[in-house]
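Pilot study result, target chain (254 residues):
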Amino acid sequence: MSAPLVIQAEGVRKMYRLGQTGGATLSEDLQSWWARLLGKPDPLATVGNVDSQRKGNEFWALQNVSFSVEQGEVVGIVGKNGAGKSTLLKLLSRITLPTAGTIRLKGRMSSLLEVGTGFNPELSGRENIYLNGAILGMKKVEIDRKLDEIITFSGIQHHIDSPVKRYSSGMKVRLGFAVAAHLEPDILVIDEVLAVGDAEFQRKCLGKMKDVARSKRTILFVSHNMTAVRSLCTRCGVAARWRRAYGRPQRTMR
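Predicted structure:
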């Protein structure tokens, strides 16, 4: 019997509209406006400029992405920069909404997408731990039980009561991962932010993610480090193509 599905994405699409900067002078703006009015090419456009870069045109970061993830799977997502990996994770984390398609999630999700995401810079590291736990729907007594473990794992004990706005990027990543991994979410979403940490901390993170996976929780892991992806993930999808898989090719992302 297969494990229950915790993530289902069907026909997910995300569109952004590209902006356009104005000319250096009013005269140049008028030349561009007059050319558009007459249906002619912009006389000030740079060589090689394409229509999709003009104001009002659409840029599709994701098109028709469909896949499902079972409870306990560790799924890697790889691909070139700009392929839509981070966009997909933001949609799954409900940071932004899809233009079309549906996403269904089952259980609590914790994500680490960008340095400092989810932290209030005016609050201390300790206060942000409680804030993130409350967002996940945890009670204070539950967070209390995990607090010392989170602080020890992050390695920033001496700064835990300082405002997060004074933290370096590495300190924010350390605390962010410690919070995301230790508050026992059903789904853990990790972007390439681990590259900010040093080699020792990256090894700790990979070890912790293996522990999370062994506890039958689900992980989505975006990385350019193929060694880490192969050692951690049960299968992998390639952004933009969504065809290739490592580990279990019978259930690839499409």
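One observation from the pilot: Confidence is low (pLDDT under 50) at residues 47-55, 241-254. A full batch analysis is planned for the follow-on phase.
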